[in-house]
Amino acid sequence: MPSEDGCLQRGMILHLPLNENISSQLKNENIMAEKEIIQMQNNDYDELLLRAVAVIEKTRTDVARHIAIAASNTYWEIGKLLYEKKLESKHGSQVVKRQM
What is the DSSP-derived secondary structure letter of residue 8? Predict the structure, then answer.
């Protein structure tokens, strides 16, 4: 409230009525700015999510490749052991069947 002489006292807030058009425009600008911030956050999240999915897919592929290699090496080693045993015994396939 102004003092008796019409001056504002220290610490008082002056409230001026805004033109409705200006007030409405400021509100719209604030809403648009908030939407832009949210959109930027969503874009960052979407990018992060896409990158995380790519890492998971690459890891799955790497794991599948390593499992396939390990399985192949295992079968190769078993086949090699059986073949060597067959050669050592000089008996043919009957030795391999008996040991299985």
Answer: B
Whether the full predicted model's pTM is greater than 0.70, yes or no, is: no
Helix, strand or coil, per DSSP, at residue 91: coil
Query: 26: domain range?
Result: 22-99
Cβ 89 vs Cβ 95: under 8 Å? yes
How many structural domains does the chain have? 1
Is 35 within the bounds of a domain? yes
- pLDDT tens digit string along 39-66? 777 778 888 888 889 999 999 999 999 9
Task: Of 59, 61, 99, give the one whose Cα is nearest residue 82.
Answer: 99
17 within domain boundaries: no
Alpha-carbon distance 26 to 20, whole Å?
10
Structural Rg of the chain based on CA atoms: 40
The answer to the question of residue 6 being in a domain is no
**Residue 45 parent element (H or E):** helix 20-89
